[in-house]
Design brief:
Elements (H helix, E strand, L loop, with lengths): L20 E3 L11 E3 L17 E5 L2 E7 L8 E6 L2 E8 L18 E8 L10 E4 L4 E7 L13
Antiparallel strand pairs: 1-2, 3-4, 4-9, 5-6, 6-7, 8-9
């Protein structure tokens, strides 16, 4: 496979400067954990937006964006296309309320999330397809741009 048309093109927007915290509290009989939490436990508020992870690849005549989004219903998702930018927005709702003082570690983000991806082509919103599997995996299919063939017209 040759160089990808996406190398260095994809970028995420709305990347707030969210400081990370290290949980170095040892569990009984276990060494300290060295995990970084993308959202500090003490500052999770409704004003913050989470981010989702995506895989982006080519298959047949499509660019495909795949995002596993556990805990989200299809009705809680919104996909927006603007020129070369595709934005996935949604809300992950917590179904049970757990008091903050009962958490040992909270890495899952609950609330609004958003992810914008700049593509190397202008996207026709009418041609974008999306599926959402029973396993909560969103798959967005974006047709590759058709190459314009130059036709020479001769008088004669």
């Amino acid at each position: 496979m040759g160089p990808s048309p996406f190398h260095g093109i994809f970028s995420a927007f709305d990347q707030d400067d969210v400081s990370t915290v290290r949980d170095e509290t040892p569990a009984v009989g276990l060494p300290p954990m060295q995990m970084e939490s993308p959202v500090p436990i003490s500052s999770q508020t409704s004003a913050q937006k989470g981010h989702i992870a995506v895989d982006i690849f080519e298959q047949d005549n499509y660019y495909i964006i795949r995002a596993p989004i556990a805990g989200v219903k299809l009705s809680d998702l919104d996909i927006e296309v603007d020129d070369k930018v595709l934005t996935i927005r949604g809300v992950r709702r917590m179904t049970d309320e757990v008091p903050k003082d009962q958490y040992y570690l909270q890495e899952c983000f609950w609330g609004e999330f958003s992810r914008s991806i700049r593509l190397p082509i202008v996207i026709d919103p009418k041609k974008v397809k999306a599926t959402f599997s029973k396993d909560s995996v969103l798959k967005v299919l974006i047709p590759k741009e058709e190459k314009v063939k130059i036709v020479r017209i001769n008088e004669g």
